[in-house]
Amino acid sequence: MRPGEQLTLQIENEMEYGYFLTDGEDSVLLHRSEMTEDIDDQDEVEVYLYVDHEERLAATMKIPTINAHTYGWVEVVDVVEDMGAFVDVGLSKDALVATEHLPPFEEAWPKKGDKLYCMLKVTSYGRMFAKPATEDVISDLFTEAPETLMNKEITGTIYRLIATGSFMLTDTGVRGFIHRTERKEEPRLGSTVTGRVIAVKEDGTVNVSLLPRKQEALSVDAEEILTYMRTRNGAMPYGDKSDPEDIRERFQMSKAAFKRALGHLMKNGLVYQKEGWTYEKK
User: Fold this and answer.
1) pTM for this one?
2) Start and end of every S1 motif domain (predicted)?
3) What is the per-residue pLDDT across 91-121, written as a single tens digit (0 to 9) for each?
4) Are residues 118 and 100 both part of a single domain?
5) What are the residue ranges of helices labelled H in the chain?
6) Is 115 helix (H, G, I), strand (E, B) or coil?
7) Residue 67 within any structural domain of the chain
8) N or C, which terminus of the chain has less Cβ within 10 Å?
9) 171: domain range?
10) Are residues 123 and 175 in the same domain?
Protein backbone atom coordinates (compact mmCIF):
# COMPACT_ATOMS: atom_id res chain seq x y z
CA MET A 1 0.00 0.00 0.00
CA ARG A 2 1.29 3.42 -0.96
CA PRO A 3 0.18 7.02 -0.31
CA GLY A 4 -2.01 8.42 -3.05
CA GLU A 5 -3.82 5.14 -3.75
CA GLN A 6 -7.59 4.79 -3.61
CA LEU A 7 -8.38 1.22 -2.52
CA THR A 8 -11.17 -0.98 -1.27
CA LEU A 9 -9.86 -2.69 1.89
CA GLN A 10 -11.20 -5.32 4.25
CA ILE A 11 -12.09 -4.36 7.81
CA GLU A 12 -9.63 -6.26 9.97
CA ASN A 13 -10.61 -5.22 13.48
CA GLU A 14 -12.17 -2.36 15.39
CA MET A 15 -10.35 -0.24 17.97
CA GLU A 16 -11.56 2.48 20.29
CA TYR A 17 -10.10 5.15 18.01
CA GLY A 18 -10.95 3.58 14.66
CA TYR A 19 -10.53 0.53 12.44
CA PHE A 20 -7.58 -1.36 11.07
CA LEU A 21 -8.01 -2.19 7.40
CA THR A 22 -6.08 -4.71 5.35
CA ASP A 23 -5.40 -5.69 1.75
CA GLY A 24 -4.55 -9.21 2.90
CA GLU A 25 -0.89 -8.43 3.48
CA ASP A 26 -0.53 -5.02 5.12
CA SER A 27 -2.71 -3.07 7.55
CA VAL A 28 -3.50 0.61 7.87
CA LEU A 29 -5.48 2.65 10.39
CA LEU A 30 -8.72 4.43 9.55
CA HIS A 31 -9.16 6.90 12.40
CA ARG A 32 -12.72 7.76 13.40
CA SER A 33 -12.03 11.41 12.57
CA GLU A 34 -11.45 10.31 8.96
CA MET A 35 -14.76 8.44 8.64
CA THR A 36 -17.60 9.97 6.63
CA GLU A 37 -20.15 7.29 7.53
CA ASP A 38 -20.72 4.42 9.95
CA ILE A 39 -19.14 1.16 8.74
CA ASP A 40 -20.15 -1.19 11.58
CA ASP A 41 -22.22 -3.38 9.26
CA GLN A 42 -19.70 -3.46 6.40
CA ASP A 43 -16.99 -5.99 5.53
CA GLU A 44 -14.94 -3.63 3.37
CA VAL A 45 -14.59 0.08 2.80
CA GLU A 46 -13.24 2.34 0.07
CA VAL A 47 -10.50 4.64 1.33
CA TYR A 48 -7.73 6.95 0.20
CA LEU A 49 -4.22 6.46 1.57
CA TYR A 50 -2.12 9.40 2.72
CA VAL A 51 0.67 10.21 5.16
CA ASP A 52 -0.70 11.96 8.23
CA HIS A 53 0.85 14.80 10.23
CA GLU A 54 2.83 12.27 12.28
CA GLU A 55 4.37 10.85 9.09
CA ARG A 56 2.39 7.59 9.29
CA LEU A 57 0.58 5.92 6.42
CA ALA A 58 -3.13 6.32 7.19
CA ALA A 59 -6.51 5.81 5.55
CA THR A 60 -9.37 8.26 5.08
CA MET A 61 -12.84 7.89 3.68
CA LYS A 62 -12.52 11.41 2.29
CA ILE A 63 -11.63 11.31 -1.39
CA PRO A 64 -9.56 14.21 -2.77
CA THR A 65 -11.30 16.53 -5.20
CA ILE A 66 -8.38 16.24 -7.64
CA ASN A 67 -5.83 13.55 -8.48
CA ALA A 68 -3.07 12.73 -10.96
CA HIS A 69 -5.60 12.44 -13.80
CA THR A 70 -8.33 14.85 -12.72
CA TYR A 71 -7.94 18.63 -12.62
CA GLY A 72 -10.20 20.94 -10.66
CA TRP A 73 -10.49 24.32 -8.97
CA VAL A 74 -8.97 24.28 -5.49
CA GLU A 75 -9.00 27.06 -2.90
CA VAL A 76 -5.88 28.60 -1.41
CA VAL A 77 -5.89 28.22 2.38
CA ASP A 78 -2.42 29.54 3.26
CA VAL A 79 0.65 31.12 1.68
CA VAL A 80 4.14 30.58 3.07
CA GLU A 81 7.15 32.61 1.97
CA ASP A 82 9.83 30.57 0.17
CA MET A 83 7.47 27.58 0.01
CA GLY A 84 4.39 28.52 -1.97
CA ALA A 85 0.62 28.29 -1.58
CA PHE A 86 -1.25 25.53 0.23
CA VAL A 87 -4.58 24.50 -1.30
CA ASP A 88 -7.55 22.54 0.03
CA VAL A 89 -7.97 19.26 -1.88
CA GLY A 90 -10.71 17.85 0.32
CA LEU A 91 -8.46 16.06 2.82
CA SER A 92 -7.39 16.90 6.36
CA LYS A 93 -3.96 17.61 4.87
CA ASP A 94 -3.44 20.38 2.31
CA ALA A 95 -1.39 20.19 -0.90
CA LEU A 96 1.41 22.61 -1.78
CA VAL A 97 1.68 24.62 -4.97
CA ALA A 98 5.45 25.12 -4.98
CA THR A 99 7.15 28.43 -5.80
CA GLU A 100 8.27 27.10 -9.18
CA HIS A 101 4.63 27.12 -10.27
CA LEU A 102 3.94 30.64 -8.98
CA PRO A 103 4.82 34.06 -10.44
CA PRO A 104 8.38 35.29 -9.82
CA PHE A 105 7.10 38.26 -7.80
CA GLU A 106 5.29 37.44 -4.55
CA GLU A 107 2.97 40.43 -5.06
CA ALA A 108 1.30 38.39 -7.80
CA TRP A 109 1.03 35.20 -5.71
CA PRO A 110 -2.48 34.05 -4.80
CA LYS A 111 -3.89 34.86 -1.39
CA LYS A 112 -6.18 32.94 0.94
CA GLY A 113 -9.53 32.44 -0.77
CA ASP A 114 -8.17 32.61 -4.31
CA LYS A 115 -8.59 29.59 -6.61
CA LEU A 116 -6.23 27.64 -8.87
CA TYR A 117 -6.99 24.96 -11.47
CA CYS A 118 -4.73 22.06 -10.48
CA MET A 119 -3.96 18.35 -10.50
CA LEU A 120 -2.54 16.41 -7.54
CA LYS A 121 0.79 14.64 -7.34
CA VAL A 122 1.68 12.47 -4.33
CA THR A 123 5.29 11.40 -3.78
CA SER A 124 6.32 8.01 -2.42
CA TYR A 125 6.92 9.77 0.89
CA GLY A 126 3.35 11.03 0.95
CA ARG A 127 4.05 14.67 0.20
CA MET A 128 1.18 16.22 -1.73
CA PHE A 129 1.83 18.76 -4.46
CA ALA A 130 -0.77 20.56 -6.53
CA LYS A 131 0.33 21.60 -10.00
CA PRO A 132 -1.55 24.31 -11.92
CA ALA A 133 -2.83 23.31 -15.34
CA THR A 134 -0.98 24.28 -18.48
CA GLU A 135 -2.72 26.23 -21.23
CA ASP A 136 -3.26 23.00 -23.20
CA VAL A 137 -5.05 21.38 -20.26
CA ILE A 138 -7.19 24.33 -19.23
CA SER A 139 -8.22 24.89 -22.86
CA ASP A 140 -10.58 21.92 -22.43
CA LEU A 141 -12.77 24.29 -20.38
CA PHE A 142 -12.93 26.99 -23.06
CA THR A 143 -16.21 27.92 -24.73
CA GLU A 144 -16.74 30.35 -27.58
CA ALA A 145 -17.74 33.84 -26.52
CA PRO A 146 -20.91 35.21 -28.18
CA GLU A 147 -20.66 38.56 -29.93
CA THR A 148 -23.32 39.88 -27.57
CA LEU A 149 -20.65 40.02 -24.83
CA MET A 150 -19.14 43.10 -26.47
CA ASN A 151 -19.07 46.01 -23.99
CA LYS A 152 -20.58 43.79 -21.26
CA GLU A 153 -19.06 43.09 -17.87
CA ILE A 154 -17.69 39.61 -17.17
CA THR A 155 -16.21 38.06 -14.05
CA GLY A 156 -13.53 35.39 -14.04
CA THR A 157 -10.52 33.86 -12.34
CA ILE A 158 -6.96 34.79 -13.28
CA TYR A 159 -5.29 31.53 -14.27
CA ARG A 160 -2.12 32.66 -16.06
CA LEU A 161 0.23 35.66 -15.99
CA ILE A 162 2.67 36.65 -18.73
CA ALA A 163 4.78 39.76 -19.34
CA THR A 164 2.20 41.41 -21.59
CA GLY A 165 -0.86 40.73 -19.49
CA SER A 166 -3.14 38.30 -17.68
CA PHE A 167 -5.50 35.53 -18.74
CA MET A 168 -8.87 35.00 -17.06
CA LEU A 169 -11.56 32.32 -17.32
CA THR A 170 -15.24 32.84 -16.54
CA ASP A 171 -17.53 30.26 -14.93
CA THR A 172 -19.02 29.65 -18.37
CA GLY A 173 -15.62 28.98 -19.93
CA VAL A 174 -15.02 32.27 -21.74
CA ARG A 175 -11.29 32.99 -21.98
CA GLY A 176 -10.30 36.62 -21.63
CA PHE A 177 -7.00 38.45 -22.00
CA ILE A 178 -6.23 41.62 -20.05
CA HIS A 179 -3.38 43.59 -21.63
CA ARG A 180 -1.15 45.39 -19.15
CA THR A 181 -2.34 48.73 -20.58
CA GLU A 182 -5.93 47.83 -19.65
CA ARG A 183 -5.35 47.64 -15.91
CA LYS A 184 -4.03 49.84 -13.12
CA GLU A 185 -2.19 47.00 -11.38
CA GLU A 186 -1.40 43.38 -12.10
CA PRO A 187 -4.07 41.03 -10.72
CA ARG A 188 -2.98 38.11 -8.53
CA LEU A 189 -2.85 34.59 -9.88
CA GLY A 190 -6.06 32.92 -8.72
CA SER A 191 -7.89 36.16 -7.94
CA THR A 192 -11.39 36.97 -9.16
CA VAL A 193 -11.72 40.06 -11.34
CA THR A 194 -14.55 41.83 -13.13
CA GLY A 195 -13.90 43.72 -16.32
CA ARG A 196 -15.48 45.01 -19.51
CA VAL A 197 -15.25 43.18 -22.82
CA ILE A 198 -13.57 45.50 -25.33
CA ALA A 199 -13.21 42.96 -28.17
CA VAL A 200 -14.75 39.63 -29.14
CA LYS A 201 -12.18 37.87 -31.31
CA GLU A 202 -12.66 35.44 -34.19
CA ASP A 203 -11.23 32.56 -32.17
CA GLY A 204 -14.00 32.94 -29.58
CA THR A 205 -11.87 34.60 -26.90
CA VAL A 206 -12.29 38.16 -25.63
CA ASN A 207 -10.11 41.09 -24.68
CA VAL A 208 -11.00 42.64 -21.34
CA SER A 209 -10.33 45.99 -19.71
CA LEU A 210 -10.22 46.54 -15.95
CA LEU A 211 -10.13 50.31 -16.41
CA PRO A 212 -13.30 52.29 -15.65
CA ARG A 213 -15.67 53.22 -18.44
CA LYS A 214 -15.59 56.80 -19.63
CA GLN A 215 -18.64 57.78 -17.60
CA GLU A 216 -17.15 56.11 -14.54
CA ALA A 217 -13.90 58.00 -15.11
CA LEU A 218 -15.93 61.20 -15.15
CA SER A 219 -17.22 60.40 -11.70
CA VAL A 220 -13.61 60.19 -10.50
CA ASP A 221 -13.05 63.77 -11.65
CA ALA A 222 -16.38 64.72 -10.12
CA GLU A 223 -15.35 63.19 -6.81
CA GLU A 224 -12.14 65.24 -6.87
CA ILE A 225 -14.11 68.42 -7.42
CA LEU A 226 -16.56 67.54 -4.66
CA THR A 227 -13.72 66.75 -2.25
CA TYR A 228 -12.13 70.14 -2.97
CA MET A 229 -15.44 71.92 -2.40
CA ARG A 230 -15.86 70.24 0.97
CA THR A 231 -12.52 71.62 2.11
CA ARG A 232 -14.06 75.07 1.47
CA ASN A 233 -17.34 74.50 3.28
CA GLY A 234 -19.10 73.37 0.11
CA ALA A 235 -18.34 76.29 -2.18
CA MET A 236 -15.73 77.15 -4.81
CA PRO A 237 -15.14 80.14 -7.10
CA TYR A 238 -15.14 77.97 -10.21
CA GLY A 239 -17.85 77.08 -12.69
CA ASP A 240 -18.37 76.26 -16.35
CA LYS A 241 -17.38 79.83 -17.28
CA SER A 242 -14.04 79.75 -15.43
CA ASP A 243 -10.75 80.31 -17.22
CA PRO A 244 -9.22 77.05 -18.55
CA GLU A 245 -5.81 77.88 -17.09
CA ASP A 246 -7.31 78.44 -13.64
CA ILE A 247 -9.06 75.06 -13.92
CA ARG A 248 -5.87 73.28 -15.01
CA GLU A 249 -3.80 74.86 -12.24
CA ARG A 250 -6.31 73.98 -9.51
CA PHE A 251 -7.54 70.52 -10.62
CA GLN A 252 -4.91 69.30 -13.12
CA MET A 253 -7.65 68.62 -15.68
CA SER A 254 -8.77 70.23 -18.91
CA LYS A 255 -11.66 72.66 -19.09
CA ALA A 256 -13.64 70.06 -21.07
CA ALA A 257 -13.07 67.37 -18.41
CA PHE A 258 -13.99 69.88 -15.69
CA LYS A 259 -17.25 70.79 -17.40
CA ARG A 260 -18.18 67.13 -17.92
CA ALA A 261 -17.49 66.37 -14.27
CA LEU A 262 -19.38 69.43 -13.11
CA GLY A 263 -22.31 68.45 -15.31
CA HIS A 264 -22.22 64.99 -13.79
CA LEU A 265 -22.46 66.48 -10.30
CA MET A 266 -25.29 68.79 -11.30
CA LYS A 267 -27.20 66.01 -13.06
CA ASN A 268 -27.06 63.99 -9.86
CA GLY A 269 -28.30 66.93 -7.83
CA LEU A 270 -25.14 67.32 -5.78
CA VAL A 271 -24.16 70.88 -6.72
CA TYR A 272 -25.56 74.04 -8.30
CA GLN A 273 -24.02 77.19 -9.82
CA LYS A 274 -24.73 80.80 -8.98
CA GLU A 275 -22.96 83.95 -10.15
CA GLY A 276 -19.79 82.15 -11.23
CA TRP A 277 -19.53 80.05 -8.04
CA THR A 278 -20.44 76.41 -7.49
CA TYR A 279 -22.15 75.29 -4.27
CA GLU A 280 -22.80 71.89 -2.78
CA LYS A 281 -26.45 71.14 -2.15
CA LYS A 282 -27.09 70.42 1.52
Assistant:
1) 0.73
2) 151-211
3) 999 999 999 999 999 999 999 999 999 999 9
4) yes
5) 135-138, 214-230, 244-251, 255-267
6) strand
7) no
8) C
9) 141-209
10) no
